[in-house]
Structure formats: C-alpha cells, structure tokens
UniProtKB/TrEMBL annotation:
Domain of life: Eukaryota
Compositionally biased tracts (Polar residues): 309-319
One Pfam family matching this protein: TPR_8
Gene3D superfamilies attached to this UniProt entry: Tetratricopeptide repeat domain, Zinc/RING finger domain, C3HC4 (zinc finger)
GO terms for cellular component: cytoplasm
Keyword Transmembrane in record: no
Organism, as annotated: Ciona savignyi
Chain intervals for the UniProt region annotation (Disordered): 309-329
Occurrences of domain RING-type (ranges): 123-161
TPR repeat residue numbers: 260-293
Protein name: RING-type domain-containing protein
Length: 329
C-alpha cells in the first residue's frame, strides 16, 4: 500500500456509535453476506476464530514480558523490541497452527476449502482467473498485472522459485492462446477481471471515486474477487472512509487468507480507527506470511514500542476501554 496516506490525528477520532458498529463487525460482520459461498464462509470462520482469541491476549502478554524486561534494564532499546516481536511471531505461528488443526478436526469448516489448490485457470500469484496471461521461460503463466505490479513486481516464480528477470517482466507479451481460451470459457469472470484492472489503474492515478465505482461493478460480476475488494478498500482508505474500507479489507482477507497485502491493508485501516492491538495482529500476520515486508515490520516495531514503553515507568497493566466484554456491543 502506498506510503502516501492521511496522517491527521483527527482521522482516528470516531463516534462511540461508530466504534460500537466496528466492534460488532469485527466479531460477526459480513458472515450473512458470504454464507452462500463455501470458500468465503470457511475463510471467514477461520479469520473470525483467530481474531476473537488473539486481540485481548496481546495486551496482557506484552505487559508481562515488558515488566520482566524493564526489571533488567532502565531503557527500552530497539534490540529489546526486536526480540519481543520475534517472540510474538513465534507465539502466533504456534497458535495459528494449533487453531487451524483444531478447526480441521471440527465440523466448522472444510479444510479443503482453506487449502484449495491452484487450478489450471488460476494465476499462482493472485489466485484469480489468469487475465492477460504471460508465460515465462519456466513454463508457468501469470497475470500481466501481477508481473508488472507498480508496487511489487514479481521477482520469483511462485511455483518453481526461478528468478524472473526484468526482461521477462517488461518484454514478454500475452499468451494469445490462453487469452482466447479464458476469454471464451469464462466470459463473466474475464469481464470482472478487466474491470478490476481498470479500477487498479484509476487507483494508481488517484481517481478514487471512479476507482470505487469500477471495482463495485467488478464485484457485482465476481463477488469472490479478493483483489477487487482489496483495491476498493484502498480507495476508500484514501477518501478516509475507514469503516467501509475495513469491511472491504475484511472481505479481501476472507477470500485470500494467505495474502500478506490484505492483512497489511486491514492493519493500516485499524490504526486509523485507533484499534492498535487489532492492527498489531494483522501486521504481524502479514510478516509471518511474507518476512520481506519492510512496511509491515516498521508498523509492528512502532506499535510494540508504543505499547510497552509505559512499562518502563510503571509495572501496572494498561487500562483500556476499547476492548469490551463479549456481551457488549
């Protein structure tokens, strides 16, 4: 996500009723919309299961660790923060694996939905229908937009880990045979992908209102398109429509539960809504999925630093009125 984001301190000030609605959405939002789609429903259940069990634990865990660290030194160093972040990531990886196994052994979701393999018509990178496919020397095909993404162009094949050269990204043309097949066999989804790409271009040009309209049209054609939801969330974010952006980012994370970008964008939105612990969860998840994400690493470092700094002056647990009991709205 671009670093050109709103930074006004007033951006995160929202009404009590708005915060109540956000809490409700974080706990149960959107599931009725997706209950007819098994994949979205399964991913929503997994995302929701993670969220409910993790947010409240972050503050307590950080408090106890910070108290121990502060008893050994008077000042908070970057090295201390890095060690703490590593501990958080290790703990999260173990818990997520344990919970996923628990869900697998239950009747809540179908694990085959969560681990759906990439089929012959799906881009291995974005996991949507190949649009304007480009076939590389290694024999694997990707969407043209995925290869040439302005933010993060591909450098390695997702399938075989072969390096993708600048020449391959910039000079290789579309595979006309695959293009003809996909456009003919998947007309509706192809149209939806075309609208999504047009919307992304509008997003790059900062034409946010037009972008939202284009991506809304794409979602009407392809309701499960995580890239359409994700980029619409970004457009709404830049327009400071944070609550609506949060819903779209959640949809993107549901439909693409292994997408680092979806978790990062959701974290950015939560920061602006003043939900720091929730944001930390999603930034850390982004880092677990893609350790090379320097932006997520910086956000995580900043949040952890701000959360534990007070413990070097006091060992009392921080009080928060942002985390209601499960019975509250």
């Amino acid at each position: 996500m671009s670093t050109d984001v709103p930074t006004s301190s007033s951006d995160s000030m929202i009404s009590r009723s708005s915060k109540s609605s956000i809490r409700s959405f974080l706990r149960s939002g959107g599931i009725k919309t997706y209950q007819n789609n098994s994949l979205l429903g399964a991913n929503f259940a997994f995302d929701l299961y993670q969220s409910q069990s993790k947010f409240s634990a972050f503050g307590t865990t950080l408090h106890h660790i910070a108290v121990k660290l502060s008893s050994q030194t008077d000042c908070l160093s970057p090295v201390t923060v890095d060690i703490l972040i590593d501990l958080i990531k290790d703990k999260m990886q173990g818990l997520l694996s344990k919970e996923k196994e628990s869900l697998t052994n239950s009747n809540l979701i179908n694990v085959e939905d969560l681990e759906a393999p990439v089929d012959d018509f799906m881009c291995p990178h974005c996991r949507e229908l190949l649009y304007k496919p480009v076939t590389l020397l290694c024999g694997h095909s990707f969407c043209q937009l995925c290869l040439k993404s302005p933010d993060r162009p591909m450098t390695v094949c997702n399938v075989c880990n072969v390096t993708i050269t600048e020449k391959q990204r910039t000079t290789y043309g579309n595979n006309v045979v695959l293009t003809a097949v996909f456009e003919s066999w998947h007309k509706v989804e192809w149209k939806g992908r075309a609208l999504t790409c047009e919307g992304i271009a509008l997003l790059q040009n900062r034409e946010y209102e037009k972008c939202i309209k284009k991506l809304t049209d794409a979602i009407e054609l392809v309701p499960q398109s995580h890239s359409a939801y994700l980029n619409r969330a970004k457009a709404k974010f830049f327009l400071k429509q944070y609550e609506s952006a949060l819903k779209d980012a959640t949809c993107a994370a549901i439909a693409a539960h292994k997408s680092p970008e979806a978790y990062f964008v959701k974290g950015e939105i939560l920061v602006h809504l003043d939900y720091t612990e929730e944001a930390l969860f999603y930034f850390t998840t982004c880092l677990i999925l893609d350790p090379s994400r320097e932006d997520a690493e910086k956000r995580t470092h900043d949040i952890v630093t701000n959360m534990i700094t007070p413990h070097y002056k006091s060992s009392s647990p921080p009080l928060s009125n942002k985390r209601p009991h499960s019975g509250q709205s």
